[in-house]
Amino acid sequence: MGHDEFLFLLAGLKWTIGLSVIGFICGGISGLGVALARTSGNPVLERVMKGYIALFQGTPLLMQLFVVYYGLALIGLKLDAWVAVSIGFTLHASAYLGEIWRGSIDAVPRGQTEAAEALSLTYLPRMRDVILPQALRISLPATIGFLVQLIKGTSLASIVGFVELTRAGNIISNQIFQPLLVFGIVGCLYFIICWPLSLFGTHLERQFATSTR
Amino acid sequence: MSASSVSEPHLATKVMISMTHVEKWYGAFKALSDINLSVRQGERIVLCGPSGSGKSTLIRCINHLEAYQKGRIHVGGILLTDASSTINSIRREVGMVFQQFNLFPHLTVMQNCMLAPMRSLGLGKAEAATTARKYLDRVRILEQAEKYPAQLSGGQQQRVAIARALCMRPRVMLFDEPTSALDPEMVKEVLDTMIGLAEDGMTMICVTHEMGFARQVADRVIFMASGSIVEEAPPAQFFSNPTHERTKKFLGDILRKH
Questions:
Q1: For testing the chain A interface, which of B98, B102, B158, B166 should be mutated: the one with the most A CBs within 10 Å?
Q2: In the CATH hierarchy, which fold is given to the domain comprising A3-211?
């Protein structure tokens, strides 16, 4: 494998990271909305969000990407592949992160909410200053775990023709007929992103634990 | 007796809290039944009774941590309804101290005390810090201001919780079994802080089994059982001459334990 082939893989890696970042940030923002709606105390809103989460957790990510990619085209929305998969990943991540953070918000002891209420803190400061910082700490291992899943999940975007790392590997492998070498390198590239992230998660968790103990 | 007669104007200027015919239900279970209670400004009330008698529920209705279904509660002349603006304005007047302290574990002692004055009273940072230092000094824990709650003992945490409530400059303080979660050697420091507050004229309602505290500071001791107020008397009379059988039995049980 030559220099150019390797650069092509790195270009694919760039899109893998880009897609992960978009999915995580957009999914994180809407996931926060999902989590807040799920804990709002409004039964209608809670049920709607529960259905949304169930839908995205109960179907394969690949199918979700197909629906967004071909479905949006069918209703006349011609989107670039990367826009379509970004929407797909955002929806997917929002459901998963929403559920992870819903669980974390519920895991903050009830007494914290009561103390905040007794101090006359209204919903916004109560969430922002009291509940969410604690929920974030509780959710960190699961959140980072999901981010790692998401990065690896971006490989599915190759199916709809989006050239990220896995797709790039596939193309190179078809050119130089060394699948073991090529996918070995592709695997290594995924690993050197995902593994430090997992380590970082563990580190953060430990840091938060000591700062409050 | 009509609903209005209990909270009638002859005491209105001095009545801080009045509860008239208050009922509270959890589904089909009646947690409070026909509670009538009037607390004047500066009065110290001790609420006692067996567990499950509704004493915590009663004080939690006063700042609407629990909703009530019937009757009326007035705090500082304001009728407590389910409207969030009313609830918030009453909560600004009513401080609460919990059995489990409920300090915010991710914030320092100082930040715990500054948060609510800044967010719900709109104080500036410097002003909130001055207030926080004043009350932390008053509960004699100012030197721990930069620590996190988990670095403090239970008694210290509870004193911080008292300071945090005082930073809102409440007119009433509610104590929900403030010493029940403490190791015995830490009970005194918390009770001393509460006695200090009482001496400064704070209106207080304390759910506690500390009968020594009740004797020393209470103007009235109220005994509850099965969601009702059974007996209500000044401490001297309450302890030496209880009239109801259930009160006698309760006092017998509690005094045997101590």
A1: B102
A2: MetI-like fold (1.10.3720)
Q: Which residues of A touch B103 (CB under 8 A)?
A: 115
- List per-residue pLDDT tens for chain A, 213 residues long: 788 999 999 999 999 999 999 999 999 999 999 999 999 999 999 999 999 999 999 999 999 999 998 888 888 888 888 888 999 999 999 999 999 999 999 999 999 999 999 999 999 999 999 999 999 988 988 999 999 999 999 999 888 888 899 999 999 999 999 999 999 999 999 999 999 999 988 887 787 676 654
pTM summary value: 0.88
Nearest chain A Cα distance for residue B114, angstroms: 11
* A137 vs B: CB within 8 A: yes
ipTM of the complex: 0.90
The residue extents of the domains of chain A are 3-211
Residue A107 touches partner B, C-beta closer than 8 Å:
no
Chain B residues with CB-CB distance to A136 below 8 A: none
For tokens 């279970």, the residue is B29
